[in-house]
Specification:
single chain, alpha/beta, globular, Rossmann fold, six-stranded mixed β-sheet, three-stranded antiparallel β-sheet, 226 residues
Length: 226
């Protein structure tokens, strides 16, 4: 098995190919090693969000080759991609993406429901993760009863529910104050120390500084690697 959890080779993503083509990604080649912590930076329209969406199997490239844990998602069906996401990936979004009608515990449990895990085991796992992110006393609260920082903590716990090897974070501190942002980044740093591979999109240099490496995107290409 390769030491790389994700490999991109000449990945291109073109929107509106039949009208006015827009090259969101223009021949991106890169390898993400197991246990690495990457920040992806770039101005609006640089291709960083498109890259994260393809990394997370939320979008398909127009051409190129890529591997996730030695699996080729290029020609997988939608159901196969969903299974791959459930098995290998955890997601943290800027807008939290919590279901408002569900409690904290139920939001954390959600990936296990789709994996068919027994409700008792799911509940136990959710309680442990809620405790880990400091929300053990908020299990029965709804998202609207939580602060932005607490909602993002729920999102971090949910991303860990299926014990993914790879965590993808899209502007994870974008809606948070400075102090809470540092707390969330400390969580991600500790998860990386535990062996998780973390790939994070951010436009904030102080947030990117928490990562071990940085990809700078420009016009759909990798401009430099630090």
């Amino acid at each position: 098995m390769s030491n790389n959890v994700i490999e991109f080779k000449d990945i291109k993503k073109i929107y509106n190919p039949d009208t006015i083509p827009v090259k969101a990604l223009d021949g991106v080649t890169h390898k993400f090693k197991c246990g690495s912590f990457w920040a992806i930076m770039g101005t609006s329209g640089s291709g960083k969000s498109t890259m994260l969406n393809i990394l997370g199997c939320l979008d398909r490239p127009t051409s190129g080759d890529y591997m996730i844990n030695d699996e080729d998602p290029m020609f997988m069906t939608d159901s196969q991609l969903s299974e791959l996401r459930l098995r290998s990936l955890g997601f943290i979004f800027q807008s939290f993406n919590l279901l408002p009608q569900l409690t904290v515990c139920e939001n954390i449990e959600l990936p296990l429901f789709y994996l068919g895990i027994h409700p008792d085991a799911s509940r136990e796992r959710a309680e442990k993760l809620a405790d880990m992110v400091g929300l053990k006393d908020r299990l029965e609260h709804k998202p609207f009863e939580l602060s932005g920082g607490q909602q993002q903590r729920v999102a971090v716990a949910r991303a860990l529910t299926n014990d993914p090897e790879i965590i993808l974070a899209d502007e994870p501190t974008g809606n948070l104050d400075s102090e809470t942002s540092v707390q969330i980044m400390d969580m991600l740093t500790n998860l990386n120390k535990q062996g998780k591979t973390i790939i994070m999109v951010t436009h904030e240099h102080d947030i990117a500084a928490h990562a071990k490496s940085c990809l700078h995107m420009r016009d759909g290409k990798i401009e430099k690697v630090e």
